[in-house]
Specification:
Order of helices and strands: HEHEHHHEEEH
CATH topology: Maf protein
Strand content: 15-25%
Number of domains: 1
Mean pLDDT: 96
């Protein structure tokens, strides 16, 4: 319910939005486009799941992917900053994380998610460590709901 309220607030205030999703696999874009009239504000939704797509579509530097890994604050920031340049929208969101059930490590456990939000000129990167015992889709949905809670505070 809060998600629809936020999207309607974006529509009312004519705040354009674009997303670059990795671990959420298009769920943010789906949530936005489920609201009538969202076409007035939703500009671009990219699911850059592979490192190759991050490099090709978002111009993420290969050396940074090697140095930090795709699931990192640095890559999340690069994703949101480059999306902002590409889309020229007021609000940009990026996600990268490990939704599981495998793929985690001690340093980067399942449930680790980075969310990037750039609103006008201000970028913020948020790190969350959701419960690794949650199912994959629950981690993804928690990420989406967390984003809308953050937007509620920002917009």
């Amino acid at each position: 319910m809060i998600n629809k309220k936020i999207i309607n607030k974006l529509i009312k205030n004519k705040i354009t939005i674009s997303v670059a999703e990795s671990c959420t696999g298009g769920l943010i874009a789906s949530e936005i486009t489920s609201v009538p009239n969202s076409s007035n504000i939703f500009n671009l939704g990219l699911v850059t799941y592979s490192n190759q797509s991050k490099e090709k579509l978002l111009k993420i530097k290969k050396k940074n992917l090697k140095k930090y890994g795709a699931v990192s604050a640095q890559i999340c920031k690069e994703m949101v900053e480059n999306l902002f340049k590409i889309s020229k929208t007021d609000l940009c969101i990026s996600t990268t994380g490990i939704a599981g059930p495998s793929g985690g490590s001690k340093v980067k456990p399942v449930g680790l998610v980075y969310i990037g939000i750039k609103f006008k000129k201000i970028s913020k990167i948020y790190m969350y460590n959701f419960n690794k015992k949650l199912e994959r889709n629950k981690i993804q949905k928690k990420t989406v709901n967390t984003i809308f809670n953050l937007l509620h505070q920002i917009v």
